[in-house]
Amino acid sequence: MEPSPGDGSSPSPSPVDQPYPPSDPPDQPPTAHAKPEQSSGDQPAGPGAAGEALAVLTSFGRRLLVLVPVYLAGAMGLSVGFVLFGLALYLGWRRVREEKERSLRVARQLLDDEERLTAKTLYMSHRELPAWVSFPDVEKAEWLNKIVAQVWPFLGQYMEKLLAETVAPAVRGSNPHLQTFTFTRVELGEKPLRILGVKVHTGQSKKQILLDLNISYVGDVQIDVEVKKYFCKAGVKGMQLHGILRVILEPLMGDLPIVGAVSMFFIRRPTLDINWTGMTNLLDIPGLSSLSDTMIMDSIAAFLVLPNRLLVPLVPDLQDVAQLRSPLPRGIIRIHLLAARGLSSKDKYVKGLIEGKSDPYALVRVGTQAFCSRVINEELNPQWGETYEVMVHEVPGQEIEVEVFDKDPDKDDFLGRMKLDVGKVLQAGVMDEWFPLQGGQGQVHLRLEWLSLLPDAEKLEQILQWNRGVSSRPEPPSAAILVVYLDRAQDLPLKKGNKEPNPMVQLSIQDVTQESKAVYSTNCPVWEQAFRFFLQDPRSQELDVQVKDDSRALTLGALTLPLARLLTAPELTLDQWFQLSSSGPNSRLYMKLVMRLLYLDTSQVRFPAVPGIPGAWDLDESPQTGSSVDVPPRPCHTTPDSSFGMENVLRLHVLEAQDLIAKDRFLGGLVKGKSDPYVKLKLAGRSFRSHVVREDLNPRWNEIFEVIVTSIPGQELKVEVFDKDLDKDDFLGRCKVSLTTVLNSGFLDEWLTLEDVPSGRLHLRLERLTPRPTAAELEEVLQVNSLIQTQKSAELAAALLSVYLERAEDLPLRKGTKPPSPYATLAVGDTSHKTKTVPQTATPVWNESAAFLIRKPNTESLELQVRGEGSGTLGSLSLPLSELLVADRLCLDRWFTLSNGQGQVLLRAQLGILVSQHSGVEAHSHSYSHSSSSLSEEPELWSGLPQVTSSAPELRQRLTHSDSPPEAPAGPLGQVKLTVWYHSEERKLIGFIHSCRALRQNGRDPPDPYVSLLLLPDKNRGTKRKTSQKKRTLNPEFNERFEWELSLDEALQRKLDVSVKSSSSFMSRERDLLGKVRGQGKGEKGCWWKGW
């Protein structure tokens, strides 16, 4: 059933369906309106008698000026010829001026005519385009059509090869009656496919390019097939295809060919018409007789429409091919088909003399997902009260379509339809409206709810409680969705006679079963398919997997998986091999299962007043009255894409190099020197450079760098070593490391051979830090970072801040009337990000994200400034990160008011703590009580055996009191908190003084404490260290680090004397001893270190 020209309307005006000007009736195309000129009757009254007199004198003066040249000619004695010559010049100038004015008037008239013609053409072409397409954004692509025409013959050759070598064997193996199936002729013809327009969607995602191609193909294609066994010939002779093809180029990579894969699909079912030849003969073949021409057409069209996609990988070994072919939905829309009213009457009796009513039912479609309501007999105001749930894959693009029909014994009568872009539901969150039916009369009542996908199980109980109060039929409301990526199987059992099976998979959850395709003649099949299920209660449901031969008679293996297992998995995801039961000993199945909870933002929604009664919904009163289609309520939370917040931090530790080549030469090359090496690193658009080590072919840099990375395939860490010279630095070698390898393993500690040089190797340690949404480990992370911090490196990051800036509202206008062209800058410390500029609007939508490395989350803040292009600051926001540390899952997602009091921004800020698993340091520190006997006592503190990690052989010892727990109560002399450890990579003993507490007060005033450290038995200045002095406090905070360059054997023989002192007075050199701790290191056979 073809849509009528008015079917593309929706309850809210689309970009191409703007309201007409008041002077244009709705059934006429809009015209270009010029500003109305003020009529004479509207002129203000004159200034009075004085003004009239002034006008008369001015007119008289102009006439006198005309006579001035004549008078001057007579006074100077000139002839009449000069006067005539001047008059001729004046008349010529006057004529040229009039010609120019006439040309300008003609040009203006042509421009007005062109505007009217363009407006009329636009009005007509809007009916040809979807409601979400804005005509100015659609560009012609004649150059692309020329390329397609040039490539068309070669595409025909490729299609012939593809059908003969790939499709034909698959068809022959799919049915025993088609074993003699062949393609006898494949010709694409001379008429190529045409692209009528191209629309590029900007601002959707920085990791993909999204195109919409309006394609039209009216071709003379001819494809003939033959089944020799049944002497049957059939084929295709001519085909028409019209529709909007969406092309997605993703993922974008940092290496050639830049684009990893191309995905193609139709958002809506295209118009497809095939001229079959010999179709009747083909359908007479056994096994095909149940098919019909209509069913074949439906199958072909469904293959091209969402959620089906055609994926063409452009790089080998592309990661997550199944996810690209079937990505997670953008969201779920719950459609409540409540009622209709004012429908037209279609039933007639006694040959039309008696008018009856109608028996209405509704068809609800979103892409290939379709639902049919029950029939309400003899009713023009039916009440359905039914609920459907649909998956939304593309926003913008997909539409909700509702068609109402009158049920009749022969052919059902059409009563009307409505269409609505799903983007409007995403923006509103909840829409509860009466929508007018196009092509008929009446309205349909829908309640539309956008359900977001949550990757954690915290809100499951809240979702289940909400669903208990929702009246839903024919199916109960869903609490989650499950996406199963079926990848492959291994070592399936053979059939009788050791024949290879034709395995296929049946996946079932309760009474819903889906089947995979069959892979023929193999016991190691590869399917690479995705399946989606709605879940009512994932705590009690199970996924049943049956691997069978395509005859369904032989079971090759089975698996039952409780879905509750996913609720405890990270990100509600399982990606692994599963052992099959009732199968071979080594038979297993590889699947990736992803669960997402369906969350409805209920901040503006009340629970049903009477559970179980349809239509018992209540909306909170909102300042935005009227239709939510005319004025959609603003969203309460951001809607970032699924990749937001998925960044990792890569910690790059450049340790040392060996056997570098010598580049320095002296005395004209007679004397061979060494090199002054340094390292350059490039990754994810960032560059880093180490310090220069002078005159060393085996340098030790020991520097740490950090960079934010994503899982985009194809990225590489590029490392180059150079010799520093006065003029041009000499090349000492290079190496590369695949980022995918590091992200998959999580840690890499290797010596890498330098390429393009005779000798040399480089020692790198790479660690992936995954942000964790909990602040419990923050103090430990800060302590570990302070210990592994190197002198040459910047301060290490303790957290990753991800910010998604969606939009702003109510920004101040320029000069009170003109909207600004706003952009925003996000900054943390010295790092900043600038968004795009949105022209001429006070409500910009940016939809941009940024990530920042955070070193001190307790003290840093996110600074946001909204500025106008050429108009200065429009507002600012300062968000202390300490607010995120106390928020749920370290995340804030809401509207923030700008500091100027006018304007708000909707943003999501989430913090993730970066916990290192390979630092070689146990992140624990303890407090130690001083002895209460006397100040002269020197308590010995011992520890147990050392703890050494294999990945980073760095030794850290804890100072623990021999007879008191780590959290011992403070003694009369107080406590000191310190950490001492040995850094094997730097060959240094490191001490970190954190703080003191409950120190003793000797006089009236609190002391001015500091901590002195001394390595005994030496008491010289070379081994003495001390902290800064804190004024008048009994609980000083130091957080200072000290180092001693010692070998491990030498450190084992030393004692560390820790004294807490206070200055007596400004003029005195005496120091009051407040307390002392002494640690002693002893070496034993078989131990690196035993105790301090």
From the alpha-carbon coordinates, what is the Rg to the nearest angstrom? 40 Å
Indicate the proportion of strand residues: 35-45%
Sheet having the most strands:
8 strands, antiparallel
Mean pLDDT equals: 77
Helix content: 10-25%
- Structure summary, number of beta strands: 55
Shape: globular
For the termini, the CA-CA separation is 86 Å
- Low-confidence residue ranges: 1-47, 123-129, 604-632, 922-969, 1082-1092
Number of helices in the DSSP assignment: 13
Tell me the structural class.
alpha+beta
Oligomeric state as shown: single chain
Task: Please sum up the structure shown.
The protein has 1092 residues and is α+β, with helices and mostly antiparallel strands. The protein contains 13 helices and 55 strands. Mean pLDDT is 77; it is low at 1-47, 123-129, 604-632, 922-969 and 1082-1092.
